[in-house]
Amino acid sequence: MSSHILPPLSPQQITTLRDAAFAAKDTAYCPYSNFRVGAAILLCPFPFSSSSDPSVSSSSLDSSSADSSNPIIITGANVENASYPVGTCAERVALGKAVTGEKQVRDLVRCGGVRALGVATDVRPAASPCGMCRQL
């Protein structure tokens, strides 16, 4: 098993991730708390990720669409329900979209291609992810 040390995110990647999380926040459904949360997942280009999933072949992973100039970003926003605590956090919505999305995105996620997660809220200082999202 080889280990790879990923370089720090570039300023452009950080800005892109932040902007995507803030844009996702605007799609939140939170009529009860009015606490809007947006999340954005940056998927990493290969060859940093390696698959332990035999259903994912390296030929199905096209790194050209996930490079730093055209990153793959998956977003999500929190969704509340009148029956507390049945709502869903923005981080889990974004990850659910990534895991069930198009084949190339699913393959990147299955191979450990999640590079970074950005979360945006309306509060200062920014809120931290809940325990469940930290475990996910």
Automatic annotation (TrEMBL):
GO cellular component, as recorded: cytosol
Pfam family for this entry, one: dCMP_cyt_deam_1
Protein name stated in the entry: CMP/dCMP-type deaminase domain-containing protein
PROSITE patterns membership: CYT_DCMP_DEAMINASES_2
Residue ranges of domain CMP/dCMP-type deaminase in the record: 12-136
Family as reported in the entry's similarity comment: Belongs to the cytidine and deoxycytidylate deaminase family.
Organism: Claviceps pazoutovae
UniProt-recorded Gene Ontology molecular function terms: cytidine deaminase activity; zinc ion binding
Gene Ontology biological process terms in this record: nucleobase-containing small molecule metabolic process; pyrimidine-containing compound metabolic process
Domain of life: Eukaryota
